[in-house]
Known about the structure:
The protein has helices at 68-88, 105-114, 118-147, 154-167, 173-184, 197-215, 225-235; strands at residues 6-8, 35-37, 44-46, 92-96, 99-103, 186-187, 191-195. With 247 residues, the protein is α+β, with helices and mostly antiparallel strands. The strands form 2 sheets. It has a 4-stranded antiparallel sheet.
Amino acid sequence: MIGRFRRIHAHEDSHGDPSDYGDEAPVATAASLGLVACPHCDAVWRDAAEGEPCGRCGTRLYTRKPYSLSRTWAFLIAACIMYIPANLLPVMITRTLFGAQYDTILSGVIYFWVSGAYGLAAIIFIASFLVPLFKLTVLILLALLAQRASDWRRPERARLYHIVEIIGRWSMLDVFVVSLLTGLVQIQGFAVINAGVGIAAFGSVVVLTMLASLSFDPRLTWDSKEQQQAARQRNEPAPDNREEKPA
């Protein structure tokens, strides 16, 4: 199997960082040079067939992630739907001697702000409201422009994707705070804190945006329409042209 295509070093046939080119200048991509990188062990191969196993680890090799945009859009639409109940439904229910209090994400931010805890209110607002909204907006923008094979600000779009990957790890801060309070504040007859339905919706938004980020292939940012069509043809199964014989 290894004899059919050969492994090369990552620096071989390098044409520089794509960010060095302008938007109007042609960009030499790995796909145009006949190079395929293994997503598991990062080995780079030349002239590898679509779906052929990697000669090092056996992972299937693809020039682009199969059905990347379809999966990304599916996760993004589901995340946008769950984003509404995540902000409208209570994420934390506090029961005391004076009654029950139902707090959403924004009502908790307002409570901490009015109480004078400006830093905590800002952290919860950024991590629980702005970050998920920012990730959804950026991923929708990247998927839409990649689907149209737009050449608009490609280097900046590539940097935006890396920013989404970096900040994604902080999206579970609100879930962590509610889980911590639920485990610590359980004083029967005085105060009991339980997680609300909204925290499940918020957690699903975080998971769905993470799956959308993993499904999106950032290499699509650098592809032209012709390259995308060629990639789709390589990923599509070959038609069955066998004629049916009469019984």
